[in-house]
Write a structure and sequence with these properties.
Length: 70
C-alpha cells in the first residue's frame, strides 16, 4: 500500500486499517514461527505497511496538537 493511499483515508478508516494490519502481521509472524509460511517476504511488507499507516496517524496527531497550540 502506498503512503498516498493511506493519507487519503479518513481517520476512522485509517484506525481500522491499522488494526487490520496489526492482525495480519501477527498472523504472518505466527505462521513464520511455526514453519507454515512459504513466502517470508510478506512479513517485511506487512511491517512496512503498518509502519506507513502508523506514521500517517502520528503525523495527523502532531498536526492536530500543533494546530490547537496556536
Amino acid at each position: 500500500m502506498k503512503a498516498k493511499e493511506i493519507r487519503d483515508m479518513p481517520d476512522d478508516e485509517l484506525a481500522e486499517q491499522i488494526s487490520t494490519l496489526r492482525k495480519d502481521l501477527f498472523g504472518l509472524r505466527f505462521a513464520n514461527a511455526t514453519g507454515e509460511l512459504e513466502d517470508t517476504s510478506g512479513v517485511g511488507r506487512a511491517r512496512r505497511d503498518l509502519a506507513r499507516a502508523l506514521t500517517v496517524a502520528r503525523e495527523r496527531t502532531a498536526v492536530a496538537e500543533h494546530g490547537n497550540k496556536n
